[in-house]
Specification:
The complex is a heterodimer. Chain A is about 30% helix and about 20% strand. By secondary structure, chain A is α+β, with helices and mostly antiparallel strands. In chain A, the strands form 6 sheets. In chain A, strands 5, 11, 12, 13, 14, 15, 16, 17, 18, 19, 20 and 21 form a 12-stranded mixed sheet that branches. A 3-stranded antiparallel sheet of chain A has the order 8-10-9. A two-stranded antiparallel sheet of chain B has the order 1-2. Classes of the chains: A alpha+beta, B mainly alpha. At the A-B interface, helix 1, strand 2, helix 7, strand 13 and helix 8 of A face helix 2, strand 2, helix 4, helix 6 and helix 7 of B.
């Protein structure tokens, strides 16, 4: 999961204050800047014979670009193909708007609503079999894609099978491959999925995801078809779905243009859409202040620069599902660690050391500083909003006395240690690493933490290594809608990180943890699942494999004229469905 | 030796320099890290990493990879840009157009203002205009580009609403075709006045930002060169002949003072291209510099190598052009060679 933006200290606020008087002197009214560059004095665009004579965007009634919703994104996608897009990557933003899935998260929260399926399967409506293995989706009739190709159950089956056939390592294909045993389309209006084993999170964690998006077979076959192990370069840059927005153009480094799908089976979008590529956070802030952007990719660290600005509202929503965590590696090759590290290979095998690290970390400094107060501690590994989360679950707070006691018990207090932590530079991850450094080095001068802040490419290269040649690293979790995904990915001793980090070397009872996670994944009663996850979370508090620095609150700066604003962290970043918005 | 022979001899050396540059670019880029980085994520198994290496030919021996890359560069297959999600060759012309347009515009700003200010200050040595142009020059050289750019945005974009950001208005952009990728030229070719004004208007702030530092450099060089030239005996002789001061300045002093200044201008073009990285990020200008910065951070080596090769070759060509201009301005260069 990529982090949204940089948090470099910026001179912007200071510069703004200094320049405010200059600007006031020039304009006579510093607050009348809603149109920014793309406005004219009269707030009206003048047009002649079909040509816009204003060199900037038109305005109506003080609203910039009245017919187009403009969002400022922080980076450029690398693929717009659901079969290739990486989870958390910018392409998911586009896929959410252009494609449909069988079911979707509602705007209000985790509830599912029908997408291309007419009903959300459940045991009650009989669309989930008694053994929990077979899901039947009644498919909407009369749906066409943006080129007019009809889309029915055979296209749904084709779309899922296409992802499985292409099997691209950069994609989220594992979600389908790990769960789906077979797919069928007995008729044009029925799609049937059989699972390998019951999975209570199937609808939430698989069917709603980008990788399960639907496209027409006719479109794919006319544009490169399907080849195992090979990306489809055409579709990666020219997506055609059935969603509320029609993809029109991708001007690399500038913007992506979309028009309203007038034939959308649901409620059509109100406005055309333009996603501007604006990597510099300062420019995004200036853009929303100028009125050129309706929403901007927002980071808690620069909320202060837009809060209170004329015409700008800062939306604070639910928590994101991407806690920022520090990995504790129990499986590093000691001879490959950075030369400065002095820790033995079994350093983190001792639960007292892991607990001590958790007690030492200054959560308040990170949450109130780096996150600007827009965050909270998170229990293992149940982020706020996920089934099982409760405020009563134990979370670590900084307790230096307990940390010292545990370090002494583990026998590392007097001798001390030097340990390296790797993180991407110039973002919240680096800040979390620096907070850890301050926390530990402040606790004991014999402790030394080397923060290796590196470029994203270097981090990714190190991060993909197995075994991982660093004892600690910082990143954020991938967002999931169901607790099983978090538990399986970040807690299960035989899960993805469990294997890489060697959790079995450290858990006091690895089999118990594994069996609890496995058991909860196949139970369909939410209350029973919740009880298991909460019991598990309490166990993990005593046997932590991570330091969870904090979980961010979803924040988004938008212009006041945006109507119907809603944000759901369960949707891919920036957690917005632009078709729901209007301006006025 | 004739100027033609001199130019031909320089042209014959050029391919050797380009091949040498390509070897250095390829080697240094590979030393800097694996090209696989941009495609990796932590979920990938070693087998999946191997799949991707095979997909992009990264499992071949390095000499084979070099020959494949160098051959591709010659034939137009410059690889896949992970950052732009498109073939490098497909994206490159537009990015190049954007950067060239910006660099040339900044160069025009810098040369026009630099020579003008330098001449103005140099011909009024130690008087108020000279001091003022010196202050201007020093501030231009001292002011960081990113700060100056943000300053202009705050005043002219957010505050006054006079200047837009980006390269064009999306509607205006799509109203004409873009055969050259240079929007001003495209607008002229289309005969579309609105598009022309839009292109110039969007270009103004980034060009001034980028050109400001170089303006200062050229102005300082021009001023000192002119001061030196004005103290030459042949200038005194011209004055003694009774020529008006304006004519002495224009016909005798400025032309000779331009020789060292032209050297600076030639070198400055390379620096302008490098300076576009910051300006393009700040002004959301979709050029090579911003693309390249993103590619470096994300390890997109196909993009990096294409960019570095381009700037290297361009630098070689510009320097060749400068040398030819030298020869034109001062025949002793040719005779001496």
């Amino acid at each position: 999961m990529k982090l949204r933006s940089n948090v470099n200290a910026r001179p912007l606020s200071v510069t703004l204050v200094v320049l405010a008087m200059v600007v006031a002197a020039c304009t006579g009214d510093t607050t009348d800047t809603t149109g920014g560059a793309d406005t004219t004095d009269g707030g009206e665009a003048t047009t002649t014979t079909g040509e816009t004579t204003d060199t900037t965007a038109p305005t109506t009634g003080g609203v910039s670009n009245p017919d187009t919703f403009v969002h400022a994104a922080d980076d450029e996608p690398t693929s717009l193909d659901p079969a290739q897009v990486e989870a958390g990557e910018g392409g998911e933003t586009v896929i959410l708007q252009v494609f449909d899935r069988l079911v979707e998260f509602s705007p209000e929260g985790p509830d599912l609503v029908p997408g291309l399926a007419e009903e959300v399967p459940s045991a009650d409506n009989g669309l989930i079999s008694a053994d929990g293995l077979t899901y039947t989706f009644p498919i909407r009739a009369g749906v066409v894609d943006h080129l007019g190709n009809p889309v029915d159950a055979t296209d749904v089956r084709f779309s899922w099978d296409r992802v499985l056939t292409m099997d691209l390592p950069e994609s989220n294909v594992g979600l389908l491959a790990d769960n789906v045993a077979s797919t069928e389309a007995p008729d044009a209006e029925t799609f049937v999925v059989t699972l390998n084993q019951p999975n209570a999170a199937f609808l939430n964690s698989v069917v709603t995801q980008s990788v399960a998006s639907i496209m027409s077979e006719e479109f794919v076959e006319a544009n490169g078809g399907v080849a195992a192990g090979q990306p489809n370069e055409f579709i990666a840059t020219n997506p055609v779905g059935t969603g509320p927005y029609v993809f029109e153009a991708w001007n690399r480094g500038e913007n992506m243009l979309f028009t309203v799908n007038e034939d959308y089976w649901g409620t059509p979008a109100n406005l055309d859409l333009r996603i501007e590529i604006v990597p510099d956070p300062d420019v995004r802030v200036l853009g929303v202040r100028a009125g050129d952007y309706d929403t901007i990719e927002t980071d808690p660290s620069f909320v202060g620069e837009v809060e209170g600005a004329e015409g700008v509202t800062v939306f604070q929503g639910e928590f994101l599902l991407e806690p920022i965590h520090i990995g504790l590696n129990l499986n590093f090759p000691a001879d490959q660690l950075p030369d400065t590290d002095t820790i033995p290979a079994d350093f983190f095998n001792d639960p007292r050391i892991r607990q001590a690290f958790n007690y030492a970390f200054d959560y308040n400094a990170f949450i109130n500083g780096a996150l600007g107060g827009f965050g909270a501690p998170t229990p293992f590994y149940l982020p706020q909003g996920v089934l099982g989360y409760s405020e009563d679950l134990p979370v670590y707070e900084q307790d230096l006395a307990s940390a010292e006691e545990l370090f002494r018990e583990a026998g590392v207090w007097d001798e001390g240690f030097t340990i390296s932590v790797i993180a991407e530079q110039a973002n919240l991850f680096e800040v979390a690493a620096l907070v850890l450094k301050d926390s530990l080095e402040g606790l004991n001068p014999n402790f030394s933490v080397q923060v290796l802040a590196v470029a994203e490419a270097q981090f990714d290269e190190a991060f993909a290594s197995d075994p991982l040649p660093y004892a600690m690293w910082v990143k954020n979790a991938d967002p999931f809608a169901d607790p099983h995904a978090f538990m399986n990915e970040y807690i299960h001793p035989d899960g993805n990180w469990g294997q890489v980090h060697g959790f079995r070397n450290g858990y006091q009872d690895a089999d118990q943890i594994a069996s609890m996670i496995d058991e909860a994944s196949i139970i369909t009663d939410p209350d029973e699942r919740e009880a298991i996850y909460q019991e598990l979370s309490a166990l993990l508090y005593e046997d932590p494999m991570w330091i969870i620095a904090g979980n961010e609150v979803a924040v988004m700066a938008h212009r006041d004229w945006v109507q119907g604003f809603v944000m759901n962290p369960l949707w891919p970043r920036p957690s917005l469905k632009f078709a729901l918005f209007d301006k006025g | 030796m004739q100027i033609r022979d001199y130019v031909l001899r320089r042209l014959m050396v050029l391919p050797v320099l380009i091949i040498g540059t390509s070897l250095i670019v390829f080697t240094l880029t590979r030393v800097g890290g694996s090209p696989i980085a941009i495609y990796l994520s932590h979920e990938m198994t070693p087998e999946e990493v191997a799949e991707i290496e095979e997909r992009y030919g990264l499992d071949e021996p390095l000499p084979v990879q070099y020959l494949t890359w160098a051959g591709g560069m010659l034939t137009g297959d410059w690889g896949w840009s992970g950052v732009a999600a498109a073939p490098v060759r497909q994206v490159f012309p537009n990015k190049l157009g954007a950067t060239l347009e910006l660099a040339v515009a900044a160069g025009i700003v810098a040369v026009a203002m630099g020579i003008g200010l330098g001449t103005y200050g140099g011909s009024r040595r130690d008087r108020l205009p000279d001091h003022l142009t010196r202050v201007f020059s020093i501030s231009g050289a001292a002011m960081p580009i990113f700060w100056f750019g943000i300053l202009l945005l705050i005043v002219f974009w957010v505050g006054l609403g006079w200047a837009p950001i980006g390269r064009s208005n999306a509607d205006v952009f799509s109203s004409i075709t873009h055969p050259t990728g240079l929007y001003i030229i495209d607008a002229l070719l289309a005969g579309n006045w609105t598009a022309l004004v839009d292109a110039i208007w969007h270009l103004l702030l980034p060009a001034v930002t980028l050109g400001f530092g170089t303006t200062a450099l050229i102005a300082r060089m021009m001023r000192s060169s002119l001061v030196e030239t004005l103290s030459e005996e042949y200038v005194d002789a011209a004055r003694a002949k009774g020529l008006p001061e304006k004519l002495v300045l224009r016909r005798h002093a400025r032309r000779n003072a331009l020789i060292p200044t032209v050297t600076v201008i030639g070198l400055s073009f390379g620096f302008l291209l490098q300076g576009t990285v910051v300006v393009e990020i700040i002004f959301r200008w979709p050029g090579l510099g911003r693309w390249m910065a993103d590619a470096v951070l994300r390890g997109d080596q196909a993009t990096i190598m294409a960019y570095v090769m381009f700037t290297s070759v361009l630098f070689l060509l510009v320097n060749l052009a400068v040398d030819v201009m030298y020869a034109y301005l001062d025949r002793r260069v040719v005779l001496g060679s």
